[in-house]
Specification:
182 residues, alpha+beta, 4 helices, 8 strands, 25% strand
Length: 182
């Protein structure tokens, strides 16, 4: 495991749509006030990920709360908070799975291990489906703070910086890059 600074390249900021601006104007204060993980997931994280899918012209799929059991004998089973695949198929999760996002109430640190395990499951899922990809990305997010992980082979890198929302423009650029270019 490698702990370091930013491993993503500098990405172009992306202006959010009116839909996302309105969703965050309403959702951020509400999710922050209630403080629940579910509110943060539904009112902040989900609208941002829907926006990423929209920016990428719906050529990727986005799943929330889906069972992602890959190898239960290895402990790679459970429900992913959010998962993005480069497949446009929206009914079933199809390879390649490229981004895993774990929602947390406040402290991001406890979610890092869970996210890493889900990234390993995604890597194995892609291999089983004969679409191995070089890099799997992950994030642990409270909605207003995001921390990123990268899995290449057996090397897990954790960016120790927290990226905040607002502003959402920088985060959108990073997420779009991870999904499409990464």
């Amino acid at each position: 495991m490698v702990e370091n600074g930013r491993f993503l390249p500098e990405t172009q900021s992306i202006e959010p749509s009116i839909y996302l601006k309105e969703a965050l104007n309403e959702g951020l204060p509400l999710a922050t006030a209630t403080g629940s993980e579910k509110a943060r997931s539904e009112l902040i994280i989900s609208p941002i990920l829907v926006e990423v899918r929209k920016i990428l012209e719906r050529k990727v799929s986005f799943f929330s709360g889906e069972d992602f059991t890959v190898a239960s004998e290895l402990g790679l089973s459970g429900v992913c908070d959010f998962l993005i695949s480069r497949s446009p198929e929206q009914i079933f999760i199809e390879a390649p799975v490229i981004v895993i996002i774990e929602a947390k109430k406040g402290d991001l640190k406890p979610g890092l291990g869970q996210c890493a395990a889900e990234m390993i499951a995604a890597q194995k899922f892609n291999e089983i489906n004969n679409i191995p990809i070089k890099t799997i990305y992950g994030s642990v997010s409270s909605g207003t703070a995001w921390r990123f992980l990268k899995l290449e082979g057996q090397i897990l890198s954790i960016d120790l910086n927290n990226y905040t929302v607002p502003p959402v423009e920088i985060l959108l650029g990073m997420l779009v890059w991870m999904v499409w270019e990464g």
